[in-house]
Specification:
284 residues; 9 helices; seven-stranded parallel sheet; Rossmann fold
Length: 284
């Protein structure tokens, strides 16, 4: 399906929220997973625009190179470093954090990497269910496990872990059991981190409606086939039909929520969820 309504706009400096924060400096590092495309790329650029050193990680080396190029085009105040890694490999997860620590003091972790698979439960491949949970729930747990000691070792223990959830971490639709169950789980992990963080190490989740990313656009044909409807009906009825704001979000808009959550302006956001859904969940 070719439609300007689902294609992201070119990311520019004007799209990015920039805030004053004493911790947003080059000495401090934010790890961003899924940094090679979509929301992960936008978040890496947004945090670098705020002066942080970003360790963007992805299995896609070319995608990471594109993120570095985009950061340079935007003219960020900080830097984007790259760490190629496989989120399904425990050794890689530990190495990602170790390499990120070489760039500075780790204070922030944005767990953004995501996958999707469309099938009803009785046909849903177990290996796909396991893969989605490995990338979107287990990896965030393992990365958090490795990142927390780095935050605790800072002079003031200030830092935050932000987790990409979804409106599908609040409600369920058909044919997405792997994605939805992992997103409900990531909200639980977020609350567990907050419970142990003592208020200086915070955690939060971000739940959006549909965003203009490859993860979303690539599922449109499969959803159309599974439901026996057109691709346009998937966008207009399935994805946006229950929302009051009937347009998809830009990746930069989601990235700005991570900037806000990591900043001093989010200091009372701890265990909670930033729900930016265009009225999808709360209106009818």
């Amino acid at each position: 399906m070719t439609d300007d309504s689902i294609e992201p706009a070119e990311l520019t400096a004007d799209d990015l929220l920039v805030v004053e924060d004493d911790h947003f400096t080059a000495e401090n590092v934010a790890i961003v997973t899924g940094g090679g495309s979509g929301i992960g790329r936008a978040t890496a650029v947004a945090l670098a625009a705020n002066g942080l050193t970003v360790a963007a990680t992805d299995i896609d080396e070319d995608g990471l190179a594109g993120t570095v190029e985009k950061a340079e085009d935007v003219g960020v105040a900080g830097t984007v470093e790259t760490v190629v890694g496989d989120l399904t490999d425990d050794d890689d997860l530990e190495r990602i954090v170790e390499e990120a620590a070489e760039f500075g003091q780790i204070r922030y972790l944005a767990n953004i990497a995501g996958l999707q698979h469309i099938d009803p439960i009785d046909e849903f491949p177990v290996e796909q269910f396991d893969l989605l949970h490995s990338v979107m729930l287990r990896a965030p747990f393992v990365l958090s496990k490795h990142v927390i000691p780095h935050v605790e070792a800072t002079d003031d223990g200030v830092g935050a872990i932000g987790n990409m959830a979804s409106i599908h971490g609040h409600i369920a639709t058909q044919d997405k059991v792997g994605y939805i169950s992992s997103k409900f789980g990531i909200r639980g992990l977020t609350k567990c981190i907050a419970a142990e963080g003592d208020g200086t190490l915070r955690s939060f989740s971000v739940s959006t409606g549909y965003v203009k990313t490859p993860l979303v656009t690539n599922q449109i044909p499969d959803t159309a086939e599974e439901r026996g409807i057109s691709e346009r009906e998937v966008v207009e009825d399935v994805m946006l039909g229950d929302a009051k704001v009937t347009e998809m979000m830009e990746p930069a808009e989601v990235a700005n929520l991570f900037t806000l959550g990591f900043s001093k302006h989010g200091r009372h956001l701890d265990g909670g969820d930033l729900t930016w859904d265009g009225g999808h969940l709360s209106t009818y």
